[in-house]
Amino acid sequence: MKLLKQRDNGGFFPVSYAFTDTIIGVLSGDAVKLYLYIKRCFAEGNEYYPSDASAVLRISGEACGSALEELELAGVAVVDGENIILTADSALRDAYAKRKEDLLTDKMRDTSYGREFKEVVTNINNEFFAGRMNARWYDFIRKCAGEYGFEPETIYILFASCKGIRTKGAASNFYNYVAKVAENWYADKVVTPEDVAEREKRTGAVREYIGFVTKKLNFSRPFTEQETSVISSWLDKGITTDMLAVYLDNTNRVRAFTVAAIDRETAKWEANGFRTADEVKQYYEDLRAAEKAKKEAGTGSGGRGKNAASADTQKHYGGERKYDEDFFAWLENRDSGAAQDGSNDSPDKQN
User: Fold this and answer.
1) Same domain, yes or no, for 39 and 166?
2) What angle (nearest 5°) sits at the alpha carbon of residue 216, between those of residues 214 and 221?
3) CB 21 within 8 A of CB 101
4) How many domains does one find in the chain?
5) Residue 223 gets which letter from DSSP?
6) Is 112 found in the same domain as 82?
7) Of 9, 105, 138, 176, whose CB has the highest number of CB atoms within 10 Å?
8) 191 burial via Cβ count (<10 Å: 0-12, 13-18, 19+)
9) pLDDT in tens, the chain (351 residues)
10) Are residues 69 and 137 in the same domain?
11) What share of the chain is helix, strand, coil (3-state, %, to 5)?
């Protein structure tokens, strides 16, 4: 890229008060280093090569690109094709003032929201960036307020909840992490501090729920993302751990202990409207009783066929319990002897 500025033959490159008083405080260390490197190139009349900058500044080429983008966002530089134009030093203060003013929309100005937003931005800058938050973060906060609709306190909670990740990697990793969390909150319609608290409560409940299933299944591998989603859906449907225990504690069904098979089984509970462990327990007791009754009735019960057996089953349960079609399909298969692939097992063993 060619630097478009008159060569400075004075043997030095001045840095204005405007830069040190305003801009330098909102730039990252990489952006400041790159700015000074570019100023040096101006002084020597050299062209700017990202590879040379990377070697001299001892940062990656990707970091150089991010730093240059940051200089643009702060109004310090303009990249025009292969050319880099530095903003005149006298205009830096105006560029910075405009950047800060643009953080608030017309809706925010002179309102309680605007005042609260400004206060939160100041607190975030001081607490998480030691007063040196760069332009990229200002733009991100503006996105949280404008595009995502987060309340000011929600934005602060976002940074507070991600604070621990800052010490585990580079600044770019911290930015990517916070941005991803914000994106997830937006997808989950998290806007207020109360929404955050409710989301955290559910996250904890899901973690305990999945931990219960993991212990019961004794899997040697972690659940896949799809399996985790399926298990979480059981919680959403009101399937309690006590209900699951009725099924999972029965060692006779151990071969059915896969997430997909358990999901099919819980679908039957949902179809029958079961809400307690006692209802699930009674369901399987009724299945065993029906199997026993069928064996005792046999096939030569004086012309009383499968329909009569089904009627007896309903009568046996007081005519009040209603089970899904799988239950009666199983009785029919047992009567006809048509299933030879293991489907002669009761429904609670098939799945």
Assistant:
1) no
2) 35
3) no
4) 3
5) P
6) no
7) 138
8) middle
9) 666 555 545 556 677 666 776 667 667 888 889 988 888 887 777 788 888 888 999 988 888 888 888 887 777 777 777 778 776 655 665 665 565 556 555 555 556 677 788 889 889 988 988 888 887 888 899 889 888 889 999 999 999 988 876 555 555 688 889 999 999 999 888 999 999 998 888 888 888 888 888 888 777 778 888 888 888 888 888 899 999 888 888 655 555 578 888 888 889 998 888 999 999 889 888 888 888 888 887 754 454 554 554 554 444 444 445 555 565 555 555 555 444 444 445 455 444
10) no
11) 65, 5, 30
Report the alpha-carbon distance of residue 39 to residue 84 in Å, rounded.
11
Q: Looking at 137, 163, 189, which one is the last position of a domain?
A: 189
Q: Residue 186 in 3-state DSSP?
A: helix
Could you tell me if 211 and 199 are in contact, meaning their C-beta atoms sit under 8 angstroms apart? no
User: Is the Cβ–Cβ distance between 22 and 93 less than 8 Å?
Assistant: yes
38 contacts 84 by C-beta, under 8 angstroms: yes
| 194, two tokens | 């109360």
Between CA 144 and CA 230, with CA 193 as vertex, the angle to 5 degrees is 85
pTM above 0.70, yes or no: no
